[in-house]
RNA sequence: GGAGAGGUGGCCGAGUGGUUUAAGGCGCACGCCUGGAAAGCGUGUUUCCCGGAGACGGGAUCGAGGGUUCGAAUCCCUUCCUCUCCGCCA
């Protein structure tokens, strides 16, 4: 959510920059400004009336105390008549505030100047690539066939006990999952991220704080009996750890990492894009989250990009980094880099990480502030990234490392798997 | 899940309808005092909104949301959370 005083001062610039999202925000911005103006007028009027009423109430108390009953009664009757007026003003103000909040909730974050123009993921800008993008050998298998051959993942069993998109990992497949999680967490904590194990269900306020609610409600599993949501990413519980906090500037930067399963309904998905591990309802992911001083958030974003690069290099996977274009940029993000690994057998890029700077967009919803040298509080900047999401990494590892004798495990993982090959 | 007790500022803690303008204490900041410090004394110290260049003024805020009243931390209703006991249980 953008701050209203930011919109007040930069309306035209915001409208212009939101065009990068292929969005004409003029109507919303102008409505927000109009509601804001009305709200301030209503606030001023109400405050004046309340000031009078407070004064009169005190007067009544004093009059009764000094025995001037008639004067007190008269004034009391006068104030009783004013009551309806005050209530009307309060309701009017509240309505304006709600309407303003509603409009603000629908305006996405302002893209950074680096965000390229474009409509879809086709228009994302490749800024870096490493490793050989090769065609697969003749007899190469896609990961779902490899998973079956070596009994690593059982999709049918998942379907039996839950439904499609809930795989069961077995044997070395399960062990490899655990190895990846452990490897990622170690890599992240060594870089200074504090490890967190958060709850896997969150309340409505948390869903709002990071921007999943109200708009993306349909993408989360909702436990209606207790009005809780299964987390779609660790970003939600971990970032919300700091909701409603006022930090000292010296507390920054804050860096968290967390492994959690992630639950996504992914309604309407179908076809080869969702085959095997490509898109699941439950998957594992290790997330990194940073809370930063506004002046440092872009430096932090670069730092996180370098960090994720390091992981992919350790896994010896060919990958590229793309800068998301306006049409593909998430609602809450100002700038996002996606990491994609090359899947040989499928001959396509698979997204394995998304690293974003949300600037103050989330922290305004979260009321996550810090106090620096200035008297007033200031919103922090929040960032997060996957480091990393497991399923597609697993898919690429299986497909790219398949040999006639089995699947080779990269060195970095062997400490964790305790085996060098799946055969 | 059942019964009871409670939720007050950065922290502790008083406050059962009107000098509460939330006592008092601790902490913190600044000043005085001092060679310097401690002690002592004084001043300030929630957050958000409105007005103002600012000084400052006004409003809201005692878990949250409603209600009663001229006036609510205080009374009523709803809800969330914490603690104690019981029940269930890894």
Notes on the protein architecture:
This protein has 423 residues and is of the alpha+beta class. 43% of the residues lie in helices and 21% in strands. It is built from twelve helices and 19 strands. It has helices at 4-18, 26-65, 69-105, 143-149, 155-161, 171-190, 204-209, 235-240, 297-314, 361-366, 390-400, 411-417, and strands at 125-130, 153-154, 168-169, 194-196, 201-202, 222-223, 228-230, 246-248, 254-263, 282-292, 319-323, 335-343, 348-357, 369-371, 377-379, 381-389, 402-403, 406-408, 421-422. Strands 1-11-12-13-16-10-9-4 form an eight-stranded mixed β-sheet.
**Mean model confidence by pLDDT:** 92
Shape: elongated
Distance between the termini: 51 Å
How many H/I helical runs?
Answer: 12
- β-sheet strand percentage: 15-25%
CATH superfamily of the largest domain: Bira Bifunctional Protein, Domain 2
SS-based class: alpha+beta
- Please name the CATH architecture of the largest domain: 2-Layer Sandwich
**Main beta sheet strand tally, sense and closure:** 8 strands, mixed
**How many independent structural domains?**
2
The CATH topology of the largest domain turns out to be: BirA Bifunctional Protein, domain 2
Helix content: 40-55%
Radius of gyration: 27 Å
Low-confidence stretches: none
What's the count of strands? 19
Largest sheet strand order: 1-11-12-13-16-10-9-4
| CATH first level of the largest domain | Alpha Beta
